[in-house]
Amino acid sequence: MAADEKEIEQTAMIDRNMDQVFDWAKGNDMPIRVAIWNHEMEANGRDTMKTEAAVKWILKADDDKIKDYCEKNLKK
């Protein structure tokens, strides 16, 4: 597998819509990366620099870590 293919594979989960991955997110067609960003923006008082640092992990996280984060933080 080429390096660029591996990068695409790693980001595939965060580029999918919430309702494509989670049953509890029916009707939420927001990409997972945007939902995580928005959640962290609110948690950081809308400070872009703090939020950027807080979400950097998602670029290297595997699907299970991303799903776990969403279940714990975004599920209502």
Explain what the structure shows:
With 76 residues, this protein is mainly alpha-helical. The protein is 63% helix and 0% strand. The protein is built from 5 helices and no strands. It has helices at residues 3-15, 18-21, 32-43, 48-55, 63-73. Helix 3 (32-43) packs across helix 4.
In short:
The protein is mainly alpha-helical. The chain contains five helices and no strands.
Query: What composes the largest sheet?
Result: none
Q: Low-confidence stretches at least 5 residues in length (pLDDT < 50)?
A: none
The gyration radius over C-alpha positions equals 13 Å
Secondary structure tally: strands:
0
Question: Helix amount, in percent?
Answer: 55-70%
Strand residue content: under 5%
Distance between the termini: 38 Å
Put simply, the count of helices is: 5
Structural class: mainly alpha
Mean pLDDT: 89
Order of helices and strands: HHHHH
Shape: globular
Question: What keyword list fits this structure?
Answer:
63% helix; mainly alpha; 76 residues
Could you outline the blueprint of secondary structure elements for this entry?
Blueprint lengths: L2 H13 L2 H4 L10 H12 L4 H8 L7 H11 L3
Helix pairs in contact: 3-4
